[in-house]
Every structure is written in C-alpha cells, then in structure tokens.
C-alpha cells in the first residue's frame, strides 16, 4: 500500500510530458489507472454497497416509501464513501402500485397460473375477468388478426425471448409487453397475457412497463411465467376452448417527487467539466433489485470512491449519479438531462456512462465521442485489456439513463457486460443478492474506475456526441 | 419391430432350459428384458404421461377437488395404456389446505419476504403476528436454548441443506421443518420460520410437512426461501432487533377419502404373486407436481405398459400403484400395506419398488430380498448395466410408500436416481414440466421395465424382507 502510493505520487509529479500521442495522458496517468485496476480487482466495495442497499432498503419501487428510504440511503452512502459533494436533484413522475394479481384456468383444466401485472396496467375491475384465450405466436401475428376478431377474448402472445450474451433477444420480444395491450385492444380483446420477457424457466413472471394510447381502449395486461406459458400452450394444443380468469388491481397516483442522488469527486483543475458514471436507484417491487440495478449503483459508487481515495483528484470532476425511476420511463435520466440543458451544462459533460445490465463481467469498451478523441478511448481500452475487455469501434449505445443527455449532444462510453443470465432474473422476485458474483463486480469496478479516471484526467476534449457510435 | 417380435417369440418358446444359475431366468427372458430396455430408450410414454397429468390436472393436493380429478385421470390413463385390470382402493386422511401466507420485516429494514406455510401448520389467527426474531444455527442450537428464553419471539432456524447426488443432505436439515415448531414452542416461541429445506437459491419457499405433539403448544410454522433466509441473516448480523410480521392461515378438514389407483398386467402363471411399481399421485399445491411425483407415476405407468405390450405377460402380475397422499404422511402406502395384511397378501408381494425422487437418471440398483434371491438381483443388474446402473449390495432403502409394506415383511428393490437437482425444485412452485428431461425419463422407464419384467418372470421366490438391505 505504502509503496504503491509513493509510486503514484512520483508518477503524478512527472506531469503531462508524454502527452503527444493524441491521448492527453502520460505515463503517470496510466500508472494511476493501473493501480486503480489492481485495487478494484483485489476487492472492491461494490458488493457490500449492494448488500447494504438490498438488505437495508430492499425493493424500492419508484414513488413508494421505500423509494424515499433509498434516496436517504444513497445520500448517506455517498458521504460515507468519501464523495466530497453530495446532493439531490428532484425528479417528478406519476406512481403506479401493484396490488392484487391472480390468474387461473377455469376450463377445461382448472389450475392456478403464476402471473404478474405489467407496470402501468389497469386492473380488471371489482370482479375478476373470465374470458376465452386466443393465442398468437408473436406481436406481428396479433397485429395481423382481423379487426374485432378478439371481441370478448383474452389475447395471449406466446413467443419466447432468446438468450444472448448481449441481451439482443430482448428487443424482438419486448414489443409484446410494451405494445401488446394496444394491439390486442384494437382487435377487441378484453385483456392480454404474454409469455414473460425473460430467459429462465424458473416459475417467476417478469414485470416491466407497458403503454396505452389515448385513442385505444385500455385493457389489463399481465405476464405469465415461462412454465405457465408452456402450460397454457399445451392446454390450447388440445383444441378445446380455454377459459382464463384474470384478477388484477393496481393503484395510480399523480406527481410524486423523488430524487436523483449525486456524489462527486471534485476535479482539481476543471471542476466544471464532468465525467459521469451511474446506475439507477429504483427497482421493480418484486425482487430486492440486486442486479437491476443495485449492481450498477454499487459498481459506480465503488469506482468513484476509489478515485476519491487517490492522493489527488483528476483534472475533471467525476460525478456518480444514482438515477430515480428508470424502470417506469427513464424519469431520472430525463430530468437530469433537462436540468443540465436548462443550466447550459451539456457541453460540460465530457463522457457519460451507466451500468444497468446486471452483474456480469465487462467484455467490451465502446464509445460515442468526437473522432479526435478516439485515441483516448483506445488508450483506456489498453488499460482495460487485462480485464478481458476489448475496444470496439462503431458499435454500442449509452445506458438508458444516459440516453436523454446524449440526445442533447453529450458524449458517452459503454462498458458492455456479459448479460447471458441477466434476463433470467431481472424484473422478477428472483433478482436478489445471491445472484451476484462479488468477483465479477470487482472486475466491473476496475473497468469503471479506469474509464472515469482517464476520461477525467486527459487533456483531450471528447466533443459533442456524433450522430453514430464510434469515431 | 417385426423382426424383434419374432425373435422374442422364439426366445419365449425356448422355455426355462437355462435356468440353472440360481436366477430362474433363461436366455429368452433376458432377450425380452433387453428388448424392453431398447424400446424404452428409443422413446417411452413417460413424458407424455407427466405432460398429461400436469396439464390436465395440475397441482393435486390431497383432499382437494384436484385430488379427485387426479384419481379419475389415473384410472382412465391406466385403461388407455392397456393395463388389463384397473381399480381403486380407498385411502382416508385429514385434509390441510393452505390459505393466506405472508411475511414481512417490520423493523429495522421493512421489506416483504417470500414465505410458505409448512404443511399442517396452524395459522396466526385473525390478525398477523408481530414478534422479534431469534436466530438459531440449526435445530440442535434451538434445543439447547434455555427454557422460556423465546417467550414472545419467533424462532428462526437458518441452517442450509447441503446438495448431494443421493439427497443425503435432506435428513440432517429436515428436522428443522418436522420438529422445529415443537422445539420452539417448548422454549416459549410464538412461531417459527425456517430456511427452506432446499438446495436452490431461486426465490421459492419450500413447503413440506411438520408435526405437533399433544403436550406442546401449537405455533405457526413457515419456511422462507433461501434468498430471504440470507436476507434475514444479513439483517440480524447488524446487531439490531429484527421484528417480523407473519400472517398465515390454513383450513383443516376431517376424513376425506381418496384412492390409490392401481393398474395391473395380470401374470400368466402366478397371477396372485405381484411385483409392484409405483409413484404417488398427489402433489403439493404450489407447483404442478411434475418431478414430485408426476415423474414417478409416468415412469412406472410407462414401464408397466411396455410389459403389457409384450406378446405374453410375465409369470407373475406386474402391479403399478399410483399412491394417494404420500406428501402428508404416506397415507396411500400405509393403506395399501394394511389392506394387504388384512387380506393375507404380504407374502404375495415378490418385489416392490417406487419412483419418488424426481426425474434424474437411475444410477444404482439396490434391493432387500432373501439372500437366496440375490443372484436374480445381480442378473437384473447385468441387464441394467448398459444404462449406467451399478448393482450395490448392502445399501439402499425402499421408496416412501413401499416402506409400510416392507415393514410388514415384503421385499423391495430400489432404482437409485441422481437427485443432484431434486431439492432445487421439489415442494416449490418451480416443480413444473420443463424441469424434466424426457431422455432421462426414458432411461428410468427402461430400468423399471427390466426390473419388473425379470422379477415377475423369474422362478425364484424373493422371500421375506431381511432385517437389513442386501443379501
């Protein structure tokens, strides 16, 4: 420890003499980056942060009492971890609260099903809804159904999400969740159930947001667990009408104000320029929000704190943001971007990244920056390479809460994570602490700390976000 | 197919000329056994039987309307599968029905927990029960607590079941479930919660029976899922009192009569001598009872049906029994044994086996028979060897429903299954069809068909059950 710090101090004193390669970084900067990497890999604070959040707060659906507790928790945690500036930023949104959710097959083979309401769904009313099920292989098949053909029926979309390391099976499947209710209502359906947008065969139903349109009747929408979707498919395969009873209720409230919680390591030379990391503080209500997104909060808090422990801060400010209400519409990310725009601070954002894809290891560095700044990204990638991270040009996208500020011109980086098992757990009761490998979290902390340090230390300006990813 | 049947017919006509090795079996008998093995491995009916039971009946807690449907299902299925004699045998037992079950931490870190009532537990009364939690590392630690030390508290046993292929982690752990309520009540506790007796970290609480004693106050008993038990341990580790709210209710009813459902392939020479296979027809109420014990029912029905399809029946009768209410006290097995004893038919039982350890492959043949009959067991083992089955002397035990008749002197065989993942699923909502590998079922059908055929065909008498397993 002592030896390392001496080396670092010497390296920092050496100054920017080697910064002629377009990276704006010198050997000292890189030595610090390597030391951050080593420290994180030797054991970071990330797991204990997630343990604290999931144990002491637990599920924290946006707009609930637990949301408020999570905000207090994050504020205290930032302070305890040595961030020199900690503050809250208001984020206002409507509230949706899950209440009753039950489903059962009434005929021809009565048995209960595991179901969960989709976020934002209306209930079935005072009494349960009983109706015949009409199966569709996917959302397109539902769209192709004749007008009125679902009058009085419950639509059932049975397509299964496919597992990929990068989660690309989510996009093609999630339309059933987002838009299924609208499409089913257009055909006359009285409700919709979908196969869970998840990859696991564990008997958990995956929740997540859905939307209504002003000109389309609102119908209740719910997801069945994969084994229950299988069961329903098997029943329907026997050729007899299948009658389902659906019993959902939910409460909605207007205009709750939660907060983005922000911790900073103030830059030593350019405190007004910021590199942002972050995750989202809210979670769905069923699990304890360990991988979605306690992990992201823990990783980025721990990475920021490591930088805060250095003998001196980087040139620019490192800002870690625990975003409010990502799950129900990126409210925290949008509020953050709007407030920065109003303050004329978009250009002050040098590079922004979010960790919101679970707790799997990072395998790629990607970025959307001014081409002139690409050498910095490549240099960062060199320091990340021993972590098993490759630098990929021309691909990638910012994290969900970073999207809104990128849309306003901010640059971004992505540390792509292995999401092979992410959709086994996310948005289910099974999103709990035990699903996290502490060693994998350490690797991610190492990657975020290196990224944040070098991006905050370089003399290069990352510019404005290009129209496309890459240099 | 045609060629095989011709060969079999020829083999059967050859008669018992080679039966001088103490096995009472000749080359023809063995050729039939090998053909049964091959047919089963090429694709048996077992999976489709389990699919039918889980889809068309689903969960079938003893004493419910679904129990009655399961009995009708089994009767019809035996007939459809070609058993020449199908009948019901009454089994009477008290009924326990799960109603409400909720738990939450009230302080210091409010959040809901996933909990399930243990089978037989009383409820918490009209209002939920709020009390401080006292943790014990295991049942022995609870037993060692001073008298009265748990007055007004909820005992929590946190020990974790260990995973083994043969399930031997169950015995040391399950005492907390069976006897925890009695031991906790003796110390003054008002309720008990235990870590689930299961090996998975999925967020399902495992149910299963518990018992009360006449002279000890009855207190509510429930299991937390493993992630929730972890959570509670982590909370308690912070040193502050933890208050739990437990809200359980259950209904009990007296004297429901269900049925063992029995299908037979009548023996061609000694129809009064029987070889019995079986599984239990009832299930817990949370899953669809696919691995516990739809699998056992499907495997043994399919094995019996394969024997029924032979050009001629074996010398003895092959009887497949779908036992009633195993889960809540081996009622079906006990009723079966008592009825046979009353009829003087214990000695008519040549060999009895049950499949009730999930859907994993068979890896060992074990038996409790007269030592003079051990050569038959070894010969059966030779035919099973290509299935990856070894013959083990001196170890093993009969299946749960076979236990009662073995206690009365009947001999038994055990086809030991790989139960590595059995306790991940059993007694949880996650016990569903997708957890079954159809190929593994086929291997088990092969093993049971070979066992039943050769045991029913041999001229050797298996005698009376020895005091210990093995010859």
What report would you give on this structure?
Chains A, B: InterPro entries: CPQ, Peptidase_M28. Chains A, B: It comes from Arenimonas metalli CF5-1. Chains A, B: Residues 260-444 form the Peptidase M28 domain. Two copies of one chain form a homodimer. The first copy, chain A, has 471 residues and is an alpha/beta fold. Chain A has two domains: 2-84 and 266-457, Aminopeptidase (3-Layer(aba) Sandwich), CATH 3.40.630; 97-251, Glucose Oxidase, domain 1 (3-Layer(bba) Sandwich). Chain A is built from 13 helices and 14 strands. The first copy, chain A, has helices at residues 2-14, 27-41, 46-56, 65-80, 139-143, 170-186, 226-236, 290-308, 331-342, 374-384, 403-407, 422-425, 438-457; strands at 85-107, 111-113, 115-117, 129-136, 154-157, 191-195, 221-224, 243-265, 270-280, 316-323, 349-352, 362-368, 390-391, 412-417. In chain A, helix 2 (27-41) packs antiparallel against helix 13 (438-457). The longest helix of chain A has 20 residues, at 438-457. Chain A is elongated. Mean pLDDT of chain A is 94; it is low at 1-19. The interface between A and B is medium-sized, with 33 and 33 residues.
